[in-house]
Design a protein that fits this description.
The complex is a heterodimer of chains A (145) and B (420). With 145 residues, chain A is an alpha+beta fold. Chain A is built from 6 helices and 3 strands. In chain B, helix 3 packs across helix 10 and helix 11 runs parallel beside helix 14. In chain B, strand 7, helix 7 and strand 8 form a beta-alpha-beta unit. The chains are: A alpha+beta (145), B alpha/beta (420).
Chain lengths: 145, 420
């Protein structure tokens, strides 16, 4: 199966899960639960090297290449942000960097959470995605050469 | 009408303060967000506008629009008269000695920057000190930092107590001949503390220290009399007091303003221009280069009229009641911590509930139609002092009601429940 198809499958699963909730409160409760399930990132990665500064909340992200695929762990001090980090990891984890660079994240819009990725929210997520894609781009480029 | 004349509007036939009929005059308060009634509690960020102000700006563009100070034709006279009349009324609003001393700026931030870069440059030298407090908004920190860096002076910071008040003993100890400027807020945008600025100014003046007051969070909520407090500079913004964005005032004592070099060059601030040399215009125009935000100035005047007609005492009394009610109701909720508990406060409550991150709380409150602000409120050093990443801030204005407070309380209870 192609990597984009895998990413799209996972995204579709998430949209279906969220569709089970009628209203925004249910969706947020589910997102909060998802966030609480994510183990906190190891203390050695809670440093400035891995921190992505947002005005409102902080995000830590630790990307790692293994066998040509991009894995990452993430955390945030705000639970809603952490839940969204968890969703993004779920969709993008263990994929080749080129697939991460081109990944379509419109599923966030479909579950009604797109605004959290806006830079004006200053929760670190927009910067996190930018950083992740840049990291993936650098590795995709290295893989090509 | 003479340009420099100050106009003080008298409040005629005072009607009792009726918050519900006042609310009716603010169209934005009727709107819905996410299908719910808007509960607007972010007034420290900006205020909503009454129909009077909206209409006055529209009328300017419909009937009076023309450039000011430059034309000989009818429209330009209309526009100039309206603009300068607004200035005169704003000067009267703060009891300035003359309208020449109320300079139009883009806002409080620009006003402070003007003082730091002109007056500050001339007064502060190597080894001197500029004194501010731990509760400052970034706009009353960064211009002074920039000044101190460029002249090799020191920025000193007056500590605050855990309750959010200036530690007066420390303040007194920090006053000396080396301090060349004191800059402090009248009201803290994050804590709501009303600082004892009259006493601080008196004590600073005993050392010959001029004082700039950041009045952005004070003028929407109380009567301000610059002569009575005897400040050297007072800065505030239109958009926080029911007027348009993009306008503010720098008030200064005549002596200071007369001797300050201009900060921007261009049209209107000049008297004569040749390539060899240029002479500058008188006050206030010397500090008003280029075509101003004419509509903004006229709208600002209309906002002052609105506040005066409503009655400053009545406004302050109503807001005090709302703030007390909100504080009491918040304190009833287990796990709520309020930041800023000075006995003298205006408009603002900063708080946190349990371990909930302010971003999380703000997101849920937003969904419930409640507009509050979360984060550091442009007071990062203060957040460090308080040891929190940020707070949730509810800030009230003359049109907020007990029902608004009740909605906030229900929202906070919901937040507590969802993140338990």
């Amino acid at each position: 199966m192609s990597h984009q198809a895998t990413i799209q499958d996972r995204a579709r699963e998430i949209v279906e899960e969220f569709a089970l909730f009628d209203d925004w409160m249910g969706k947020y409760e589910y997102l909060i639960d998802l966030g609480k399930l994510v183990p906190p990132i190891e203390v050695e990665y809670k440093t400035d090297d891995y921190k992505i500064k947002g005005c409102q909340s902080q995000v830590w992200i630790r990307p790692e290449m293994q066998g040509g695929l991009l894995y990452y762990k993430g955390d945030s001090d705000a639970v809603i942000t952490k839940g969204l980090v968890a969703l993004l990891i779920r969709v993008l984890n263990g994929q080749p960097p080129a697939a991460v660079v081109e990944a379509d994240l419109s599923f966030l819009d479909e579950i009604g959470m797109k605004e959290h990725l806006s830079p004006t929210r200053r929760n670190g997520l927009a910067s996190m995605m930018k950083q992740l894609k840049l990291y993936a781009l650098a590795h995709a480029h290295a893989a090509q050469n | 009408m003479a340009e420099a004349e100050v106009q003080t509007i008298q409040r005629v036939g005072a009607e009792p303060f009726d918050v519900y009929s006042i609310r009716e005059r603010f169209p934005a308060l009727k709107r819905e967000v996410y299908g719910r009634a808007l509960v607007y509690l972010d007034n420290a960020a900006t205020s909503q506008k009454p129909q009077d102000v909206i209409e006055r700006v529209t009328r300017y563009y419909t009937e009076e629009n023309s450039n000011v100070h430059r034309g000989v034709h009818y429209l330009s006279q209309l526009a100039t008269d309206a603009y300068e009349a607004a200035r005169a009324r704003i000067a009267g609003f703060i009891d300035a000695e003359s309208a020449k001393q109320t300079i139009f700026t883009r806002g409080t931030t620009e006003a402070i920057n003007i003082v730091a870069s002109t007056f500050g440059r001339e007064r502060v030298g190597r080894g001197d000190q500029v004194l501010i407090s731990e509760m400052e908004h970034h706009s009353n920190i960064v211009p002074w930092q920039m000044l101190c860096e460029s002249v090799d002076a020191e920025l000193k910071v007056i500590p605050i107590s855990d309750e959010g008040e200036i530690v007066y003993d420390d303040f007194e100890r920090m006053l000396s001949g080396r301090v060349k400027i004191l800059a402090i807020p009248h009201v803290s945008n994050t804590l709501g503390t009303i600082n004892p600025i009259k006493e601080m100014i008196r004590d600073a003046h005993a050392f010959g220290i001029p004082v700039l007051i950041d009045g952005a969070q004070a003028v929407p909520h109380m009567q301000v009399d610059v002569q009575d407090i005897d400040c050297d500079f007072y800065c505030f913004s239109s958009h926080k007091m029911f007027g348009p964005t993009g306008m503010g005032i720098l008030y200064g004592k005549a002596d200071h303003l007369e001797n300050m070099p201009p900060h921007q060059g261009g049209g209107d601030m000049i008297e004569t221009v040749t390539f060899r040399e240029t002479t500058y215009n008188d006050l206030p125009h010397r500090f008003e280069a280029g075509t101003p935000n004419i509509a903004g100035g006229i709208g600002f005047g209309a906002a002052v009229d609105f506040m005066v007609a409503t009655g400053l005492q009545a406004i302050a009394a109503h807001e005090h009641e709302i703030l007390e009610y909100a504080t009491a109701r918040l304190q009833e909720i287990d796990g709520v911590r309020i930041y800023g508990t000075a006995p003298d406060k205006a408009s603002v409550i900063s708080f946190l509930v349990d371990d909930v991150h302010p971003y999380d709380a703000g997101t849920i409150l937003d969904r419930l139609g409640i507009a509050v602000r979360t984060g550091h409120h442009c007071t990062q050093p203060l957040m460090q002092r308080l040891g929190v990443p940020g707070t949730v801030r509810a800030s009230f204005a003359l049109y907020n009601t007990r029902e608004d407070v009740d909605a906030l309380i229900e929202g906070v209870k919901k937040v507590k429940e969802m993140f338990a």
